[in-house]
Amino acid sequence: MRENTPPHRPDFEDDDDDIGEEIDLDGDPPLDDDELEMEEVTLAELEARLGLNGFDDEMDNEAAEDEAEDRERIAAIRDDAVVTFRKHTAPVFGCNLHPRFDWAVTGGEDDRAYVWDTKNGDVLFEIAEHKDTITEAHFSHDGSYLATGDLSGELFVYKVCEQPDERPILSKVWEYSMSDMAWLFWHRNANVLLAGSDSGEVYVWRIPSGECKILPGQSSRCAAGELSHDGKKLFTVYMNGVVKLWDLKSCQVLMEVGEEHPLGLGEITHAVVACDTDSPLYLCAEGNGKLLFCTNNGPVNVVNSEHCIECIEFAPATSDLKLVACGSLDGQISIWDYAKYSLRSVCESPAPNDGILRLKWISDFTLLAATVQGNINAYDARSGALKFTLTGHHYHVYEFVYKPQENVLLTVSEDNTAKIFNMPPLDE
Length: 428
Description:
Elements: H1 16-22, H2 33-36, H3 43-49, H4 55-75, E1 83-85, E2 92-97, E3 103-108, E4 113-117, E5 123-127, E6 134-139, E7 145-150, E8 154-163, E9 166-177, E10 181-186, E11 192-197, E12 202-206, E13 212-215, E14 222-227, E15 233-238, E16 243-247, E17 252-257, E18 271-275, E19 282-286, E20 290-295, E21 298-304, E22 309-314, E23 323-328, E24 332-337, E25 342-348, E26 356-361, E27 366-371, E28 376-380, E29 385-390, E30 397-403, E31 408-413, E32 418-422
Antiparallel strand pairs: 1-32, 2-3, 3-4, 4-5, 6-7, 7-8, 8-9, 10-11, 11-12, 12-13, 14-15, 15-16, 16-17, 18-19, 19-20, 20-21, 22-23, 23-24, 24-25, 26-27, 27-28, 28-29, 30-31, 31-32
């Protein structure tokens, strides 16, 4: 018997009489056969007595009505996309745009990643080696490599090999099996790949050599990580509430907010991190609304939001204002002035209860938000006013990437599709 097999139930069939004799009924005489007879009741009669008549029919009718309403909602959605990629057969979670070529990469729950042409949606390459949901798919900063990663921790890196007068090809140059993966991204200035794990370790690899550094774990999932503005440090948060700032060269902890720290987060169920793009300021936000601001020397302030925070993003370094945006699942985006730790503006969703899943700044004052109803909303962060909405997806938009050189947007969704949008002019 395997050690983790539950014990079998005891078999009392042969000893029913003995068990009956051991039960004391407080001296009451034994029941005769007439008293032991059970009333025969049909299923319909039982349902009537319990008030369940037509219960299944009501459930079926409600499901049919919900399905009909969903069909009507989908039929009314205007598709603003110029290209829709439909090769995936399950929800799509990861995506990226090549910095030089007209390439998109997408990966999803069908264990497939595709590289495809953003002009027409034609498949250029298919990656079918994964055996679990692909949540991460990224081109390196210069487009020379492509990395894909799945939930089980299988990672693959492909070299983008350019050929004179011919279409570039992909050639696998590296692979690795880690414990279950939490996140994965490239360094913004080097061919260095970073990944966080469910067991808490953070891996840092040079590609293609595979030279590896491991930042020790917390025996707790590393929920999120982000590079500092200078690219030399990594800011991480763990599910036990610990926050750390690492020096990537020495693998030493430069700053830590422990579980017992008075400004600590405590045990968390969801957390995200962000780093200011122009200064050593770091932000960790946990699901219940606490915002923890830190510097290289430790925590400096805690701000409590009234909303469950799903995503955060600092404004670009070129912006005159010191702003950070926080998106919540109830559909509200709060814009904070972190120089004063005060709320500056609020962006309200044009659709009720349209939760925010991703936020990204695409200019100094324009903020994009991806929502659970499949919308992409653009806001003026100074006033909170809605600038425009891009529609076309039917359900959750899990990720999106903006390519400013061509002013195009790539989105991926629960509806099994990826889309390319041409962005409207940004009137700042």
